[in-house]
């Protein structure tokens, strides 16, 4: 154990020389490939990180573009719905107006027809009243009145009834 505590200079020199030789051999044979492998791996990792960052930026831009397109599509859909509602309201208003106009036209035609029919019935009624009056007058007079006189009497009766109504 004493020898371990006392240094041997020759052994030290050979140990140092061996260490330097091993260092030289390792630096020529092993260190260069190891450092090249480490550098290549470091470059690969750096490239992968850059590609991942670029892909992340691209994905973010793509997501923003899709969100923008989605928002634009929603705005367009909302405009189309609003336009369709307005068109529907306009069409409904046009149909209601057309129906009202048609109803008014039908009512007016009915009034005209009713007025014409009323006048026709009044004329018939006047003629009937005149004929009845003539018949009563004939019975009263107990004689027959000729046709011309009868027409004159009927005309006078119609005129007097018309004047009385007016």
Question: Which properties best describe this structure?
Answer:
3 helices; 166 residues; rod-shaped; mainly alpha
- The poorly predicted ranges are none
Work out the count of structural domains: 1
Instruction: Specify the helix fraction band.
Output: over 70%
Chain oligomer state: single chain
| Computed CA radius of gyration, to the nearest angstrom | 62 Å
SS class: mainly alpha
The share of residues in extended strands comes to under 5%
| Most strands sheet | none
What does this structure look like?
The protein has one domain. The protein is built from 3 helices and no strands. Helix content is 94%, strand content 0%. α2 packs across α3. By secondary structure, it is mainly alpha-helical. The longest helix is centred in the middle third of the chain and has 133 residues.
Question: What are the SSEs and their pairings?
Answer:
Blueprint lengths: L1 H4 L3 H133 L5 H19 L1
């Amino acid at each position: 154990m004493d020898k371990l505590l006392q240094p041997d200079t020759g052994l030290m020199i050979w140990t140092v020389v061996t260490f330097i030789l091993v260092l030289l051999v390792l630096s020529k044979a092993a260190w260069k490939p190891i450092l090249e492998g480490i550098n290549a791996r470091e470059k690969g990792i750096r490239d992968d990180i850059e590609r991942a960052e670029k892909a992340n930026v691209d994905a973010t831009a793509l997501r923003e573009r899709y969100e923008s397109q989605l928002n634009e599509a929603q705005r367009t859909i909302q405009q189309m719905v609003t336009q369709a509602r307005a068109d529907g309201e306009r069409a409904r208003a046009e149909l209601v107006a057309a129906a009202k106009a048609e109803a008014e036209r039908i009512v007016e035609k009915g009034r005209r027809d009713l007025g014409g029919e009323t006048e026709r019935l009044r004329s018939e009624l006047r003629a009937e009243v005149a004929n009845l009056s003539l018949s009563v007058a004939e019975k009263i007079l107990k004689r027959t009145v000729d046709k011309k006189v009868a027409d004159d009497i009927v005309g006078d009766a119609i005129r007097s009834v018309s004047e009385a109504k007016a």
